[in-house]
Amino acid sequence: MERRPYENQAGATQREQLKEEGANVLDTAAERAKQAGDKASDLAQSAVDKVKQTADDLRSKDASQIVDDARAKASEVGDAAATKVDSAMTATGEQMSTLAQTVRENAPEGKAGDVATKAADALDRGGEYLQTADLQMVRSDLERVIREHPIIAARGRRRWVLGGARHSEVM
Questions:
Q1: Inter-helix orientation angle 63-106/135-148, to 10°
Q2: Are 100 and 120 in contact (CB under 8 A)?
Q3: Distance CA 96, CA 89 (A)
Q4: Region of 163 on the Ramachandran plot (φ > 0 left; ψ -120 to 50 alpha; else beta)
Q5: What does the alpha-carbon distance between residue 145 and residue 161 come to, in Å, rounded to a whole number?
Q6: Which pLDDT does position 56 carry in this prediction?
Q7: Does residue 1 sit in helix, strand or coil?
Q8: 20 to 30 A Cα–Cα from 95, which one of 8, 48, 58, 143?
Q9: DSSP H/E element including 151
Q10: Would you tell me how many other CB atoms lie within 10 Å of the CB of residue 125?
């Protein structure tokens, strides 16, 4: 299909408006690209400055200071992780205790109810253990169980004492 030139004044005016809008859009895009480039350049320069500063700091310290700083940082990270684990254990213990209460409330009568009550008691003991134990205590308990039952631990059969209840499971 052949393009026909605009034949009237209104068509020419519309064409000029489109050109102007297109030019404005391109100018805006170019300005934004320039701003993004400037920001990227500033960020890169900031990163370079930080690396230089860190290198200068490392040069000014002897090896023992660097090792001490690394140990301190590792200790901070370890403490933060232990705090998160302790918090997760407490939350899990609370959920176990809540589940134990729900099991008790919904336990049927008779033998099934007795089994449900025993299960709820075990859940409750385990929940209390997790709520009160810290990571070091759990580690110590695990080490003790492995020492007391090394063959079972080595064979892949897990036995543990959690809140006074004895459990076993084949892996």
A1: 80
A2: yes
A3: 10
A4: left
A5: 8
A6: 79
A7: coil
A8: 143
A9: helix 150-155
A10: 18
Over its length of 171 residues, how does the chain's per-residue pLDDT go in tens digits?
Answer: 555 555 556 666 777 777 777 777 777 777 887 787 778 788 888 888 888 888 777 777 788 887 888 888 888 888 888 888 888 989 999 999 999 999 988 888 899 889 989 999 999 999 999 899 888 888 899 899 889 988 887 776 554 554 455 555 444
Question: Cβ-count burial of 156 within 10 angstroms (0-12 exposed, 13-18 middle, 19+ buried)?
Answer: exposed
- Token pair recorded at residue 76: 């901070």
Tokens at 146, concatenated = 């492995």
Residue 126 Cα to chain centre, angstroms: 25
**Measured between alpha carbons, how far is 22 from 15 in angstroms, rounded to an integer?**
11
Model confidence, pTM: 0.48
Q: Can you give the pLDDT at residue 12?
A: 65
First-residue to last-residue Cα distance in the chain: 76
Question: Are the CB atoms for 145 and 159 separated by under 8 Å?
Answer: yes
Tokens of 104: 């008790």
CA–CA separation, 6 vs 35, rounded Å? 38
Single-letter amino acid, residue 52: K
